[in-house]
Q: What sequence folds into this?
């Protein structure tokens, strides 16, 4: 039995526009991934706690509010504090200026997806990053 790639999708802060996050969540689910959508108005603490509790491989954060530098920085810091830095792939999407994207990538965010990105590109990136063969059942 093969373990599915597990992805947590979150909308942090006061941003109430979640259409894109729901479209991405649906595309990942259609691609055979297990998706946990935690919804709107999540704090970085809530996102990281949910990611660890759900044993996810990927955190996807959709943000349009302009608070991306603060939120991603806090998520990355919390993952480090929990010993999960480098174990959970962190991706983002939304309206994020190019100069800020470079800062986010430098802090450990794996990839930023802007408006108009094909969902197939997101699926492929996650599969390549996590590995198609991950999760093959091991006998105990």
A:
């Amino acid at each position: 039995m093969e373990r599915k790639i597990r992805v947590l999708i979150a909308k942090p802060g006061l941003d109430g526009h979640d259409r894109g996050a729901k479209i991405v969540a649906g595309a990942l689910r259609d691609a055979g991934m297990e998706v946990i959508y935690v919804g709107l108005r999540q704090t970085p603490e809530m996102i990281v706690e949910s990611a660890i509790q759900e044993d996810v491989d990927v955190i996807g954060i959709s943000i349009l509010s302009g608070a991306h530098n603060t939120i991603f920085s806090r998520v990355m810091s919390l993952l480090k504090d929990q010993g999960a830095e480098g174990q959970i792939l962190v991706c983002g999407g939304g309206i994020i200026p190019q100069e800020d994207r470079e800062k986010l990538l430098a802090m450990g965010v794996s990839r930023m997806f802007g408006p108009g990105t094909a969902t197939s590109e997101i699926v492929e990136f996650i599969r390549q990053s996590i590995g198609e063969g991950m999760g093959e059942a091991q006998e105990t």
In short: The radius of gyration is 14 Å. Residues 133-140 have pLDDT under 50 and may be disordered. The domain at 6-130 is CATH 3.40.50.280 (Rossmann fold).
